[in-house]
Amino acid sequence: MKKLILGVALGALLTACAPDVSQTDTAAPAAATPARSAVEELHFRTLVLDTHLDTPAYFHDPKYTFSKRGDFDVDGTHVDLPRMNEGGLDGGFWVIFTAQGPLDEASYLAARNLAVLRQMSIREMAAKYSDHVELAFSTADAERIAAAGKKIVFQSMENAYPLGTDISMLDTFYVGGLRMIAPVHFRNSQFADSATDVSEAYGGLSPLGEELVRSANRLGLILDGSHASDNTVRDMMAISTTPLILSHSGPKAIYDHPRNVPDDLLIAIAEDGGVIQINAYGAYLEALPASAERLDTIAALQAEYGSDTSSMDDATRDAYRAAYEALNKQFPAPRSTFEKFMEHLLYTLELVGPDHVGVGADWDGGGGVDGMKDIVDLPKVTAALVEAGYSEEDIAKIWSGNLLRLMSEVEAARSSDLTSPQVLN
Ligand SMILES: [Zn+2]
Asked: CA dihedral in degrees (262, 55, 355, 181; nearest 10)?
């Protein structure tokens, strides 16, 4: 049992140094288990949460089983229950992601249906594996679930597109357990400008986006500025009564990419009480030019198939994906490194301090680097933080304390009395 006590309401996070026997559930017999180093002990007694787990994208995939150990090199996955135990990941925000489509009513309805199913899949997972995981709706839930030695399942929405133009849908997803919302993804939505859309639709939030921020405040949802344009983030900060999170972002000073955030904005978010969770998505960590062979093969594939999988029939899509997998084996995409990820994390820590930084690595959503290919390697992050001089108290804040402190502020500021049932009767 993880004897972890969160003093969230007091802004303090205390850890009790008890062995985490949940780790032994799937471990080899004691005689074959190497003794943990002091740093590993620190890691495993810390509550470790990640704010961007895209794993729900696999929950309806018959080839994926949450309770079975996968292997990134074989199946490309990062997260499952055995690896959460091996890497000391105690849970986090599991994402309801919807790709951006056209801004029309028919597309909103289709997206809404997909998002409802994705939220159901997270709740189904929590119900199916209830001996090991539990839905969390509050900081108090997180404390209780961690103390019971279970994994914490918060829900977030990446891209508010499936809400359509009916903001009351946010109430519906809240009742289902949603506790974090990001208005936008790769392209401008009905709510906001995206960091990666070349056209600027609103210069920040749209009027509907402003309404979304107010509704999130009312309900008690954390507002997430990842993927939003800098002006959108500024608008969100100006309107929101609670601080923002960036659930998976990075500092532009280390790599100048639209998905990364300039120092002045990172500092403003932190000064407002917000938290910046650092991404491990290689293409946002550094420039990774592909080899000429890879680029040529991609061009040939696109000439043959196009690149829009949504317009392909099933057989063509399967053939396209098989060809792409073969390409990835023959001419692998260049990958960033653990050292580069740590450069982003340590830079941001230095810039805004350990009270405003955490980790949202984009696991199962393109995250992962050489040296930290999946969550099994998370203890290396703790070791690198110790090496950089951060105390156990700092490390506890970075791994979850800052997130839960922000969440407790959001809870305290809410004015809605809607609740979320654990079990539907
Ligand atoms: Zn993302």
From this structure: 70
Question: Ligand 1 centroid vs 248 CA: distance in angstroms?
Answer: 7
| Rounded alpha-carbon distances, angstroms, from residue 132 to 148, 167, 189 | 9, 34, 36
- CA 300 vs. chain centroid, Å, equals 33
- φ, ψ of residue 250 to 5 degrees: the values are -155, 170
8 A C-beta contact, residue 182 and residue 228: yes
pLDDT digits (tens, 9 = 90+) for 31-55: 566 789 999 999 999 999 999 999 9
* Distance in Å, CA 55 to ligand 1 centroid: 12
d(Cα 210, Cα 80) in Å, to the nearest integer?
37
Give domain 4-10+17-22+38-288+335-413's CATH superfamily.
Metal-dependent hydrolases (3.20.20.140)
**Ligand 1 centre distance from Cα of residue 255 (Å):** 17
Which pLDDT belongs to residue 310? Answer: 73
Distance (Å) from CA 282 to ligand 1 centroid: 12
Q: Is residue 24 scored above 50 in pLDDT?
A: no
Residue with tokens 């000439």: 303
Question: Tokens in use for 282?
Answer: 């290689």
**Chain segment 170-200, per-residue pLDDT in tens:** 999 999 999 999 999 999 999 999 999 989 9
Q: What is the pLDDT of residue 405?
A: 98
**pLDDT tens digits along 57-94:** 999 999 999 999 999 999 999 999 999 999 999 999 99
**Domain boundaries of the chain, sorted by first residue:** 4-10+17-22+38-288+335-413, 290-334
The arithmetic mean of pLDDT across residues 2-18, rounded, is 40
Asked if 27 contacts 85 with a C-beta cutoff of 8 angstroms, the reply is yes
What string of H, E and C letters represents the secondary structure of 265-331?
HHHHHHHCCCEEEECCEHHHHCCCCCCHHHHHHHHHHHHHHCCCHHHCCHHHHHHHHHHHHHHHHHC
Please give the distance, rounded to the nearest whole angstrom, from the Cα atom of residue 7 to the centre of ligand 1. 30
Distance 72 CA to ligand 1 centre (A): 19
Sequence-ordered strand ranges (E) for 73-209: 91-97, 133-135, 151-158, 178-182
Please tell me the distance between residue 11's alpha carbon and the centre of ligand 1 in angstroms: 28
Residues 72, 78 contacting (CB under 8 angstroms): yes
Higher pLDDT, 424 or 121: 121
